[in-house]
Design brief:
alpha/beta, Rossmann fold, single chain, 174 residues, 17% strand, 5 strands
Amino acid sequence: MDQPGIPPDQLRENLLELDKLNRYLGGHYVTLQGVKKLLGEKNRVYKIVDIGCGSGDTLKYLARWARKHHYRFDLTGVDNNIHAIKHLKQHCKGFPEISGVVSDYKDYGQNGMMIDIYISSLFCHHLNNEALISLFRQFKMARRGFVINDLQRSPVAYYLVWLVTRSSEGNRTG
């Protein structure tokens, strides 16, 4: 997935595995808990931007929660891979509050764009220190704050990823 020329079918499989990991290992829940701490009143729209959004699985999770709890979210996924954004648009059909933008994170959110909350899930570990500092500077411009949910590499983490991604390999549907 880190490779720029990854074939679209392989990328799609990786994105499906990430969605599964986020659902079964609590990644979506952790991100939601952070977002909830940044919310205020319900009578406004919150602009939330997911940097390195992949398939938009986290955005979809947030949209479902917002609908259930009567919040209004304007959710945008930003990814530099056109195939990831194409998958997001397929994966998030029926969620008009979710849109996808093909862009490098460094180029998005500039020019005074008003963003309430930035989120980033399983993206930051791909960046070097200099890029992280740049990203954090960008996140600091959010009106309400930002939520970063990333992995800690360890033998237990590797085993859990292996277990979850292999648990229903035979049950995948197109």
